[in-house]
Amino acid sequence: MKKLLLSLVTVILITTSVFADEIKFTASAPNVVELGEQFRLTYSLNSKGKNIQIPELDGFRVLMGPSTSSSMSTQIINGKVTSSSSYSYTYVLLAEEEGKFEIKPAAITVDGEKKTSNSLTIEVVKVDKTRQDTGSKQSQNSASSQKITEDNLFVKVKLDRNNVYMGEHVVATIKVYTRLTIAGFGDSKFPSFDGFLSQEVPTPGQISLERENINGTIYNTGIIRKLILFPQHTGEITIDPFELEVIIRQRQANKRSGFFDDFFDNYQDIRVPRKSKPIKIKVKDFPSNKPASFDGAVGNFTLSTTIDKDSVKANDAITMRVKVEGNGNLKLIKPLEFNFPADFEVYDPKTSQNLKSSEAGMSGSTTFEYLIIPRHAGEYEIPSVDFSFFDPKAKIFRTRSTKKFTVKVAKGDGDNSGTIISSFTKEKVKFLGKDIRYIKTNDFTPQLKGEVFFGTTNFYLAYIIPFFLFVLAFVFNRKRIKENADTAKLKNKRANRVAMKRLKMASASLKAKQKDQFYDEILKAIWGYTSDKLNLPLENLNKENISEILLSKGVELELKDEFLSILDTCEFARYSPSAGSSEMDELYQTSMDTITKLEKNIK
C-alpha cells in the first residue's frame, strides 16, 4: 500500500512539473533569404497542442508542411524530478517576391486554451546574377577552392551612432562577415577604446552565425563582442582597428582522381588574418547653460532620498540613503554633497551599484549611504540638495532635488552638556561637560643617576651601530636599484612567480565553473611566462615561431609539444561546447607541470 501511494505521489509530481511550466509557442526563420530560395519556418511548443493555424504568408509559397516532431526528457537531480517536452511544426517556404515581409503570429490550442506565437520579419533580397553564376561554376568544379577575398570575409566594428554628447552611450558591436565556411578562430586583438569608459554587454559564449543583408549581398554574420562606450572628452575620437585570425575550411583540390574520391572529400584549414577599418566618433560638448549642480551625469534619472529615523538620542547613528535610478552613465555619478549641521559627525558615503548593460545602455541604480552621528541635543535640519543631469534625447538639463529632513536629537546617556557650541572643532569638544582636568596628586620623588652617560662605551656604540646599519642599508639599496634597472633580468627572475599567480586565478575560475575566464587565465599564464622568461614582447610571440625559440633555448622536443598542445586546447575550448570539469582539471595540472619543466630547462 505504501509503495502504491508513493508511486501515485511521484506520478502527480511529474505531471504537475510538466504542466506548471509556462506555455511557450515561438516562431523562427532566417532573417534574410534570396529571391527563389527555399527555407524553413518552424514553430516550437513546450506542450502538446492541436489545430495549429498559420497566418497568410504574403510573398511566400508553402511547398511542404507541417512536418511535426516531438521529444521528451526527464531528469532527477538531488531527488528533484524535472520533466520537459517539446513539439515542432516545420513548413518549407519559397520566397517569391522581393522586399520585407511580416509573418503575423500563428495560433494553436493547448488544453482548450488558444496560444499565439511571436511575429517575424523576413527580408527577401534579389540575387546578384554575376555572383550567382560565379558561385554555380565554383560548385560545379569540385576540385577547385573558392578564392578568399575581402568581399567574402571581413570583420567590422559597428556603431549604433557616430555623433553623440560627452557621456552619452554608444553601442559598439564587433562582428565577422563571411560567405565561406568558418572552422574556428585564432588570435585576436581588440581595440583599446582610448577616450571611452567601456562596459561589456553579455553575449553567448559560443558564436552563432545569422544571415544579414549587406548592400544586396547575404552574409553569415557572428557577434564576437558587444560593448557600451561612454566618451570621456569632446572632439573627434578614433577607435583602433580590430584584428582577428579566422580559420577557413576549404575543399582541397586532388591532383589524382581515385576510386574513393567520389565518396570522401579532402579539406584543409586556412588561417586568414582580417583587420577592420578605424572608426571616428564626433563627441559634442554640453550646452552652455549648465546648472551649478551639474557634475557630468548624462541620461535620464530619478532621485529618491530616505532616512531611517528622524528622532534619536545624541551619539546615536542615523543612516541617510540617496538613490539615483534610470538609464545613463550611472557608473560615473559622484556622491551628492550635503550641507550637514556642524554638530553632526558625517562619514564618507558608501556607494553601492546595481547595474545592467544592454543594447539600450546602462540601466539600474547607484545608491549613496551616509552615516550621520549627531553629538548634541537639539532640533536640526538637513537641507535639500539639487542633482542635475543632461538628457541627450531632449538635449536639455534636468534637475531633481532631495527631500529636506528635520531631525530631533534628545539628550543622550552621559551627555552633561545641554548647550550647543558649534564654533569648537571635534578635538575641542571632547572635554565639554568637564570643568578641569585634575592634576595628579600622588607623591613624586626624583632619583639621581649614579654615573654620567657621556663618554661611556654605550655612548660611542649609540653612534657607531647606527652608522654601520646605515652603510649596510645603503649598499643593499644600491644593489636592489641595480637589479631593478636590469628589466630583462628582473622579468626572468619573477616569471615563474607571476605565472603561478595566474594559475591560482585560473584555479579560482575553475572552482567557480567560469569556463571562459579559466581558459583566458591559462593562456595568459603560458604566454606571459614565455614572454618574461625569454625577454620577448608578447606581440612577437606566436605559435609559428615559438617552436624555434624554445628549441634554440635547449628545450626538449617533447616539452615543446606539450606547450603547443596547451595553447591549442585553450583556443579550441573557447569556441567549442562546454568541456567537463575533469578535462579542465587535467589541463590545469598539465599547465603547472609544463611551466615547472620550462623553469628547469630555460636559464
Automatic annotation (TrEMBL):
Transmembrane feature ranges: 459-476
Signal peptide (residue range): 1-20
Keywords linked to the UniProt accession: Membrane, Signal, Transmembrane, Transmembrane helix
Pfam families: BatD
Protein name per UniProt: BatD protein
Lineage: Bacteria, Pseudomonadati, Bacteroidota, Bacteroidia, Marinilabiliales
